[in-house]
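Listing S7. Sequence submitted for prediction.
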Amino acid sequence: MASKGTAALQAMIEEATVDAYGDDEQLTGLFTMIEEHLAVPFTTTVLGVEVTVRKIDLTADTIVALCARGHHRQRIGLLDLPLPTPPPDGAGWIDAYRHWAER
């Protein structure tokens, strides 16, 4: 899936944040859309090691991917998570989150 254009990303952000006031509520709106639309689990490579993204979670100030490899677990900021090729279904919402975070 090719990266979405700016207008499409902005429309997605507006959909996710339509009733949100302030950054905290906007972040929650984006998290909700990512949680609803992103197909998990999926595998990706982090620092040369294959991991499985099991879940997406919301912290006080960011969205994180809960990654697993064997018995090891680690939270990785969704903005820092490299996506596989092809990306999982719903990854466009991660693009929208990245676009929102860069504003």
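Caption to Listing S7: primary sequence and predicted structure tokens for the chain studied. The first strand starts at residue 42 and ends at 46. Residues 6-101 form one domain.
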